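call fold(seq) -> C-alpha cells
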Amino acid sequence: MKRRMIWIAPLAILAMVLFVTLGGYVVTHLWNWLLPGLFGWRQITFWQGLGLLALCRILFGGFRLHGPGRSNFRRRMRERCGRMTPEERERFRQGIREGWGFGPPAGEGAGPSK
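ret:
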C-alpha cells in the first residue's frame, strides 16, 4: 500500500503539468488559427494563451475544489424526491413544466373549452 502511494503524488503532479501545458497549447493554437483571420487580431504566445486559460477559469469556473465537502445538488434532489408522495412529486413536475413553458398552465385542460 505504501509503495503504491509513493507513485501517486509524482504521477498526479506530472498529470497536472501535462494538462496545463496541453491546455495552453490548445488555447494558443485555436486563437492563432481563428481570431487573426476572422477579426484581424494579433497572434498570441504560449504564455499569453496560458494566461487566457487561467483568466477564463477565474471568470467562468471559479476556484471551487471538488472534494468530499462540496454540495451535491443531484444527491440532495434525489433525497427530496424520495421523501415526496407521488402526488407531491407530480405537482412538483407540473410546476417545473409550467415554469419552463413545457405544457399548459395548471388551470387549463388539455382540450379547447367551449
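Residues 2-61 form one domain.
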